[in-house]
């Protein structure tokens, strides 16, 4: 097995098997969507209106809360130092870890979103655009998160700081993604948001691993 | 003589100590002229009444809020490329000032907006992107405080500042897609047509010059303080050892 594939398999196995917590992000997503009608009220019209934004915010938070397992555990037990010495460049390691994070956190959210959108009374016409937006946007969430996780990996109390650093970086993705879905719900075309979302994702996927690897090198010094 | 000679902390401290009183004095002078002229010797606007005078604080504060981040971007880049400690410390020194200026711009805007727009807060693109900028400042400052080792902190905050700059810019244009706004166009630009009227414009220039000088003075002062604090710590460590 090539080093890249071995690392990817390892990451996914660690996430899926006991104690990895791959299902936790999904459960968190579910509970946020459950709590929202309880707080806002069961009004179907109102829920349909807030559904795109709500689903996107729940996805952001679910992604954010699972970021600590990206580098933290590997840094604590020294695996990260070993990985840094491996034939793979550190940028590649970051990219593979972010990919594994997306496969175990982002992708389940994309698949679960249409079902939860039904409970929030999102119009049928908006369903494909919601899924398309999440499909384009959630990889960016993992890649941006990798930057934040790499910056805070050496910190003892990194959790709250991580959210303060990462959530502002999620703003463009959230705006474009939620816009796509809510415009579709209003019967409009996606407009400029769709290419902007795709562009943001491409930018982050291309540049993110390099930035995160630079931050990791600082922390591994 | 090249500009990099100021990167020597000892020379930097010496030069700052010589020029700081003059810069501070100039800041006080410009601020006094701009604010007194603006507040007491300009006519009331025919629609906005005397509330228009808040621009003598609001516009310069907003100007500094944005440019302080830009300055941090440049100094972070210099730190990452040339490893001059003064540069990293200047970025650190500028952040709280920028955060306060962002807050001042938001607060004065709210005070002005209540009688004029009929609301303290509106989710307008400009207002929203300033709030986002404020959060970026908070994250940057929090990261400086969270990391113990000074050089690691400088490296990580510089990376954050560069990434943040890209995303702050992206957010600025993203919010335009998200909402049309109430906020009026730029008060200042090279394109003279959309500028404010001349009676308000001249004191505003003094006020902005005053804010810029104040910002420079505060950054120099805080950077010098930080250099001295580090030297002090190094001396104390040497005594212990």
TrEMBL record, chain A:
Annotated GO MF terms: heme transmembrane transporter activity
Principal location listed in the UniProt entry: membrane
Recorded superkingdom: Bacteria
GO BP of this protein: cytochrome c biosynthetic process; cytochrome complex assembly
Keywords, sorted A to Z: Cell inner membrane, Cell membrane, Cytochrome c-type biogenesis, Membrane, Transmembrane, Transmembrane helix, Transport
TM segment ranges: 21-40, 46-67, 99-118, 130-153, 160-182, 194-216
Membrane protein topology class: Multi-pass membrane protein
UniProt GO cellular component terms: plasma membrane
Subcellular localization: Cell inner membrane
Family: Belongs to the CcmB/CycW/HelB family.
Primary role: Required for the export of heme to the periplasm for the biogenesis of c-type cytochromes.
Name under which the protein is recorded: Heme exporter protein B
From TrEMBL, chain B:
Keyword Cell inner membrane: yes
Domain of life: Bacteria
Cytochrome c assembly protein domain ranges (all copies): 4-183
Cell location: Cell inner membrane; Membrane
Gene Ontology biological process terms from the UniProt entry: cytochrome complex assembly
Membrane topology: Multi-pass membrane protein
Membrane-spanning ranges: 20-42, 54-81, 93-115, 127-147, 159-179, 199-221
Any single GO CC term annotated in Swiss-Prot or TrEMBL for this entry: plasma membrane
InterPro entries per record: Cyt_c_assembly, Cyt_c_biogenesis_CcmC, Cyt_c_biogenesis_CcsA/CcmC
Pfam families, sorted: Cytochrom_C_asm
Keyword Cell membrane: yes
Protein keywords: Cell inner membrane, Cell membrane, Cytochrome c-type biogenesis, Membrane, Transmembrane, Transmembrane helix, Transport
Any one GO MF annotation of this record: heme binding
Biological function: Required for the export of heme to the periplasm for the biogenesis of c-type cytochromes.
Alphabetical list of NCBIfam families matching this protein: ccmC
Similarity field: Belongs to the CcmC/CycZ/HelC family.
Protein name: Heme exporter protein C
Species whose genome carries this gene: Pontivivens marinum
Gene that encodes the chain: ccmC
């Amino acid at each position: 097995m090539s080093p890249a594939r071995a690392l990817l398999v390892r990451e996914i196995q660690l996430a899926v098997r006991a104690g990895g917590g791959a299902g936790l992000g999904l459960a968190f997503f579910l509970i946020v969507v459950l709590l929202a009608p309880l707080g806002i009220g069961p009004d179907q019209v109102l829920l349909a209106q807030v559904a795109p934004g709500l689903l996107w915010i729940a996805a952001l938070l679910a992604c954010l809360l699972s970021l600590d397992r990206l580098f933290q555990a590997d840094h604590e037990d020294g695996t990260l130092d070993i990985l840094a010495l491996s034939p793979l460049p550190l940028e590649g390691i970051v990219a593979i870890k972010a990919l594994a994070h997306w496969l175990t956190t982002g992708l389940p959210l994309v698949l679960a979103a249409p079902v939860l959108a039904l409970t929030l009374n999102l119009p049928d016409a908006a369903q494909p655009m919601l899924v398309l937006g999440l499909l384009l946007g959630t990889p960016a969430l993992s890649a941006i998160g990798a930057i934040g996780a790499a910056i805070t990996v050496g910190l003892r109390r990194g959790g709250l700081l991580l959210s303060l650093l990462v959530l502002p970086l999620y703003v463009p993705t959230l705006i474009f993604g939620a816009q796509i879905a809510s415009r579709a719900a209003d019967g409009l075309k996606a407009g400029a948001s769709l290419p902007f979302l795709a562009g943001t994702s491409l930018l982050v996927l291309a540049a993110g691993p390099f930035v995160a690897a630079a931050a990791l090198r600082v922390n591994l010094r | 003589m090249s500009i990099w000679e100021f990167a020597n902390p000892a020379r930097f401290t010496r030069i700052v100590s010589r020029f700081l009183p003059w810069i501070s004095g100039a800041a006080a002078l410009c601020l006094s002229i701009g604010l007194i002229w603006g507040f007491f010797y300009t006519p009331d606007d025919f629609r906005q009444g005397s509330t228009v005078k808040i621009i003598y604080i609001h516009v310069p504060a907003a100007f500094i809020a944005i440019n302080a981040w830009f300055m941090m971007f440049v100094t972070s880049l210099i730190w990452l490329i040339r490893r001059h400690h003064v540069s990293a410390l200047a970025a650190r020194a500028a952040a709280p000032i920028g955060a306060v200026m962002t807050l001042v711009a938001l607060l004065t805007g709210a005070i002005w907006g209540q009688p004029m727009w009929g609301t303290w807060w509106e989710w307008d693109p400009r207002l929203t992107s300033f709030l986002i900028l404020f959060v970026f400042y908070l994250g940057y400052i929090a990261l400086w405080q969270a990391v113990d080792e000074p050089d690691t902190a400088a490296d990580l905050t510089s990376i954050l500042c560069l990434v943040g700059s890209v995303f702050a810019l992206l957010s600025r244009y993203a919010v335009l897609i998200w909402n049309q706004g109430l906020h009026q166009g730029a008060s200042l630009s090279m394109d003279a047509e959309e500028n404010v009227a001349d009676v308000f414009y001249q004191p505003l220039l003094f006020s902005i010059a005053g804010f810029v000088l104040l910002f420079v003075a505060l950054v120099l002062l805080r950077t010098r303080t930080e250099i001295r604090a580090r030297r002090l710590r190094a001396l104390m460590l040497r005594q212990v050892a």
